[in-house]
User: Which sequence fits this backbone?
């Protein structure tokens, strides 16, 4: 097949993210909760959304590969990663614990990679109704309006998104930031939404330690196309993503506008001295 126009890929990703919201909202109040082998929560809605997206991608682009958070029930419908140039990365429901508990913050994240580099990214938060989208070289939008990851006012409080994980790095950084005047931490329970809010300037930064590729592939493009910087917590690049690696490996990240990113990197490095 010929290379698909990036605009067509973005249109499909936006449509599927919106449909995911329809599916999630339709079952609120009667959610079937399951447990993964690692004891984390998953719902039948996660699977329903993911299978809906996978089926649409397989129909539209049968030569594209996929990486998705949940085990695919139709894994033979997609091309293997190795021979495929394009890879869709899908988090059907980021913020499952919020969804189960009735906390109104959960999102769907969809990215398309070209040789491991994001070229399309979409994050749709299904309760506030914010849809963030980016196409390589074309900037980032929220509900169709351009947004920017602007530098924060040095005299204002910085809103810093922190992870739920309690590993040594996360705990050290959170303690360091809690002791810094003007740093205010937030955790909304969805890293995809944290990154989207950072891209739009609503949050100053997003920090995470135990992320997977589906948590951050779309957000990486949202942030960078909005003028921000996203690396690991020590300034090392994240892309191109190594698609041959275990998709369940932990990927730590820091995202912010460039000058804020540089300052926050220094605070993180200070915890490792």
Assistant:
């Amino acid at each position: 097949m010929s290379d698909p126009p990036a605009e067509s890929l973005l249109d499909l990703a936006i449509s599927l993210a919106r449909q995911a919201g329809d599916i999630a909202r339709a079952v609120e109040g009667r959610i079937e909760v399951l447990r993964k082998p690692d004891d984390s929560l998953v719902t039948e809605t996660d699977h329903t959304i993911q299978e809906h997206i996978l089926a649409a991608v397989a129909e539209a682009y049968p030569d594209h590969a996929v990486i998705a958070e949940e085990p695919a029930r139709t894994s033979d419908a997609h091309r293997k990663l190795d021979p495929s140039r394009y890879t869709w990365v899908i988090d059907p429901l980021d913020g499952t614990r919020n969804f189960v508990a009735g906390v109104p913050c959960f999102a769907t994240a969809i990215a398309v990679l070209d040789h491991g580099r994001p070229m399309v990214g979409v994050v749709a938060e299904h309760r506030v109704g914010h849809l963030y989208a980016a196409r390589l070289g074309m900037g980032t939008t929220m509900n169709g309006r351009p947004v920017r990851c602007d530098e924060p006012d040095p005299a204002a409080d910085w809103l810093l998104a922190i992870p739920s994980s309690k590993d040594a790095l996360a705990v050290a950084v959170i303690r360091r930031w809690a002791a810094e005047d003007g740093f205010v931490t937030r955790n909304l329970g969805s890293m995809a939404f944290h990154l989207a809010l950072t891209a739009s300037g609503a949050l100053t930064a997003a920090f995470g330690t135990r992320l997977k590729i589906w948590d951050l592939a779309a957000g990486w493009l949202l942030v960078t196309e909005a003028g921000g910087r996203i690396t690991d917590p020590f300034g090392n690049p994240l892309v191109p993503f190594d698609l041959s690696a275990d998709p369940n490996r932990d990927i730590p990240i820091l995202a912010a506008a460039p000058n804020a990113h540089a300052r926050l990197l220094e605070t993180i490095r200070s915890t490792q001295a």
